[in-house]
Amino acid sequence: MSADSRGGKSSGYVATKSGIQGFTEALRKELNPHNVSVSLIEPGAVGTDMQKATPEDQRELEEKMEMLKAEDIASVIYFILQQDRRSSIVELKIKPLRQLT
């Protein structure tokens, strides 16, 4: 989830996402003494049933590399989970190649 500005029209959205960033960082520090790693994944556009775009439109956006598939996010989660315990991926942003915002 990204807290990047959305053109000045979604202050509630941005505030919520910023809150999640702060919560994640606080949780990471709180759980660190227990050897628990916490990662924040900030995806760009992902084709899901939460999108306004129809499934057909989503497939077109995926083909144009303007939208990720859920499998792309699953791959990132798998990558994070495969890291050695001595390392921690704190934040990871993943966006479609053609998503510039």
TrEMBL record:
It comes from the Bacteria. GO terms for molecular function: oxidoreductase activity. The keyword Oxidoreductase applies. Keywords: Oxidoreductase. It holds the Pfam family adh_short. Belongs to the short-chain dehydrogenases/reductases (SDR) family. This is Short chain dehydrogenase.
